[in-house]
Amino acid sequence: MNIKILSRNASLFSTDALVQAAVKRKHNVQVIDPLNCDIVIEKKKPEIYYRGKKLDHVDAVIPRIGSSITFYGTAVVRQFEMMNVFTTIQSQALVDSRDKLRSLQILSKAGLGLPKTVFTNYSKDVSEVISHVGGAPLIIKLLEGTQGLGVVLAETKTAAESVLEAFNGLQARVIVQEYVKEAKGADIRVLIVDGQVVGAMKRQGKEGEFRSNLHRGGSASIIELSEEEENAAIKAAKALKLGVAGVDMLQSERGPLILEVNSSPGLEGIQIATGKDIAKSIIRFIERSV
Ligand code: ADP
């Protein structure tokens, strides 16, 4: 099969792991930078040119679109869809998953457990927002944040008020969320491919840190999921229509609470923690689907 990986950097662990997995299964694979693709739109003749050369006979694409290029990257994926090329992540699912608020709305409708969350339009009434999530301590998150940056734990009501006022003053969009204390600085990342769990790890934040992101010094270990956690992860990926997804959840007294669902989940941490070849599962998903 002729597979294209849409990624800006062929030397990234995840991109390279996908290339290796495709080669091992005897596919023809190429990494292409979506920013170097030209989209040509004409009646019934959608085309893509990569570095000036028309892309023909592509069977499948694997989008690995970073959040900084969501708009253009999504347009390229959509063009492949118009050319009837299979994609592991559909363009609309990519758009939905990139918007934290929109994904939470979709997940809530699907009946998934979530930390109680409030979004307001630069509200002047900060006190009321705080009372919606049951008071301090609480979490304030920048809507555009990734890798734990822009996630703040406000321990007291006064701290929460000043942080919210500061963000409001900067016109930065934030969500306010109940702080799930019993998660104890840990979360669970579940990798879903084609509706199945293919790997799961628990991430623990470093000493004194409530954020468990590996980029913030957290450590990962393999975990056996409960049936409830497994079902929640599968349901979350399905609700967002993602063929490949990294579902993040907190363990709480009322069961798993979904934090977010990533459409280009990193493979390094999870492959090392679980010893599983997740890239191979993604290639096999393509083989079954094309
Ligand atoms: P990002 O997308 O930047 O990683 P997250 O929403 O995943 O942002 O938050 C980063 C980390 O902070 C999570 O992995 C989790 O450990 C912690 N965290 C986030 N929200 C909460 C919450 N409501 N209660 C407790 N811990 C949280």
TrEMBL record:
Signal peptide limits: none
Keywords attached to this entry: ATP-binding, Ligase, Magnesium, Manganese, Metal-binding, Nucleotide-binding, Protein biosynthesis, Ribonucleoprotein, Ribosomal protein
Chain ranges of the ATP-grasp domain: 104-287
InterPro entries: ATP-grasp, ATP-grasp_RimK-type, ATP_grasp_subdomain_1, Rimk_N, Rp_bS6_RimK/Lys_biosynth_LsyX
UniProt cross-references to PROSITE patterns, sorted A to Z: ATP_GRASP (PS50975)
Enzyme Commission numbers on file: 6.3.2.-
Cofactor annotation: Mg(2+); Mn(2+)
GO cellular component: ribosome
A molecular function (GO) term: ligase activity
Keyword Manganese tagged: yes
Pfam families listed in its UniProt record: RimK (PF08443), Rimk_N (PF18030)
Designated name of the protein: 30S ribosomal protein S6--L-glutamate ligase
